[in-house]
Amino acid sequence: EVLYKATKQHKLAIDSVYKYIRHPQYLAFILIIFGFLVQWPTLITLLMAPILIVRYIRLANQEEANMLHLFGMTYQRYKQSTPMFIPSMKQCVSAIFRTFTGGGEKI
User: Fold this and answer.
1) DSSP 8-state assignment for residue 55
2) What is the pTM of this model?
3) Which of 48, 58, 59, 83 has the smallest number of CB atoms closer than 10 Å to its CB?
4) Which residues lie closer than 8 Å to 90 by C-beta, 6 or more apart?
């Protein structure tokens, strides 16, 4: 929903999960790939997993180049302050603390 609304308004999606990581969809796909490796450790999954992971990382980098072209310095600042795939523990702990102490937006 966040990405859909931002796209319709020609804005960056920087709310919700996008506050913590820039590519939540690709992170989810990569975690699913690791899940397949654990669930079905076959030759095919062992061969395909690294290929798919590298492809998702390259796709994320291509999208970032496009976002830099479209949004310029706004995206550059977002890119500098928000990790690509792995959320900052400091941000996560802070968000959880604010949620449970009533000091901010719910996660």
Assistant:
1) H
2) 0.77
3) 58
4) none
Please compute the mean of the pLDDT values over residues 8-22 and round it to a whole number. Answer: 88
> Which is nearest to 21 in space by CA: 66, 74, 93, 82?
82
Phi, psi of 41 (to 5 degrees): -75, 75
Q: Which among 21, 15, 14, 28 is positioned nearest to 106, based on CA atoms?
A: 15
With contact defined as beta carbons under 8 Å apart, do 61 and 76 qualify? no
State pLDDT tens for residues 41-91: 999 999 999 999 999 999 999 999 999 999 999 999 999 999 999 888 887
Nearest-angstrom CA–CA distance, 47 and 91: 35
Contact 18, 2 (CB under 8 A): yes
Give the whole-angstrom CA distance, residue 61 versus residue 69: 13
Residue 78: strand, helix, or coil: helix
